[in-house]
Amino acid sequence: MSPKLATRYMGLDLKNPLVAAASPVTAHVDALRALEDAGIGAVTLPSLFEEQLEHEEMELVTMHHLGTGAYFEASEGYFPELDDYNAGPDEYLDKIRVAKQSLEIPVIASLNGTSAGGWVHYANLIQQAGADALELNIYHVPTDPEASGAQVEEEQVTLVREVRQAVRIPLAVKILPFYSAPLHMARRLSQAGADGLVLFSRFMQPEIDLERQEVLPNLRLSSSDELRLGLRWIALMEGKVNCSLAASTGVHTAEDALKLIVAGADAVTTASALLRHGPPWVSRTLRGMEAWLEAHDHPSLDAIQGALSQRNSPDPDNFERISYLAALASFRRSTRE
C-alpha cells in the first residue's frame, strides 16, 4: 500500500501538500482541471492587486459624479452609492465561481497589497463567490524614511485583523522575509487571525538597462537553491506559532518538498516548477515523494512532518548562529582538499 500524503492546511483537508501558487498557470479553468487531474492538492488563483482595486474605485467615482451638476436626471447621480455598488473586478469573482464548479480540490483566492482600504469589502465578495480560503500576499517595499519598522508592521497586522473580522473562510498571509524579528511578527499575524503563514513571497528585483538607460522589471524563475531561506524559518517557527505553515520558493523536486515537510511545513507551494514543466510535474513529484517514504518505511507524511524542526531536532543550534560557523569551517575544509 502506498504511503499516505494527506495533510491538513489552515483547517483544509488536502490529499497531498502540493499547492499551485498564484501564477499564470492557475489563471484558466482548463489549466486548473489539468492540475487537478495530475494530482495537485489545492490551487491558488492569480492575485487580485490593490492597484487594480484602486483603479476600479477611481473609475467608478468618475462615472458617479459625471454630469451631476448639468442635468436634472443626474442630480442624484447616474450610479448607485459606492456602498451599494459592486465596484470589484467581476471577472475575478467569476473565475472563483467557475473554478469551484469545475474542481473538487480546494480553491484559494489571493489578494495582493499592503493597506486595509477596500480589502474587507473584496474579501467578503471573494467569500461569497465560494472560495475555500483567502491568501493575503503582503508585498510591501517601505520607501518612506519617516515610517519605522514598527509602524509598517502595525499596518500589516491591522490589515490581517480587519480582514479576519470580516470573513469566516481560512486566511493565509504570504509574507516577505525582511522583518527584524520574524518569529515575533509571525506570532502577531497569527494572533490577528491568520490561519496560515506562507514563507516567503519572492522579492522581485528590478534590472537596469545601461544602453537604454531604463529601469526594467525582471522576473526570473526560482531554483532549488532558494529553498533554504524558507526551510530555516519554517523549522524555527514550527511549534512556536499557532497556525499552519506553508513553504514557497524553491520547490522543484520531491526531495525539496520532503525537506520542507521534515522542517515543519504543512503544505508546499510552487509556481516556477509549474511554469517550467506544467501539470506533469505534479504527478512526477508525488510519485517521488511516495517512493522516498516507502523506501524509508514511513507510512505517511505525518510520520516525518516536523521531525527536523528546531523544536524536534537533535541539534537545534544548527538553525541559529552555529550553522554559520559550521558552514564557514566546512567551506575551508573543502578548499584545502
Report on the architecture of this protein:
By secondary structure, this protein is an alpha/beta fold. It folds into two domains: about 5-305, Aldolase class I (TIM Barrel, Alpha-Beta Barrel); about 310-335. Helix content is about 40%, strand content about 15%. It is built from eleven helices and 13 strands. It has helices spanning about 30-40, 50-65, 90-100, 120-130, 150-165, 180-190, 225-235, 255-265, 270-275, 280-295, 320-335; strands spanning about 5-10, 10-15, 20, 40-45, 50, 105-115, 135-140, 170-175, 195-200, 205-210, 215, 245, 265-270. The strands form three sheets. The chain has an eight-stranded parallel β-barrel, surrounded by seven helices. The chain has a two-stranded antiparallel sheet with strand order 1-2. Strands 10-11 form a two-stranded antiparallel ribbon. It is globular. The relative contact order is 0.13. The model is unreliable at about 55-90 (pLDDT under 50).
What is shown here, in short?
The chain has 337 residues and is an alpha/beta fold. It has helices at 29-38, 50-65, 90-102, 119-129, 149-166, 182-192, 227-237, 254-263, 272-277, 280-295, 321-336, and strands spanning 7-9, 12-14, 18-20, 42-44, 48-49, 107-113, 133-138, 171-175, 196-199, 207-209, 214-216, 244-247, 267-270.
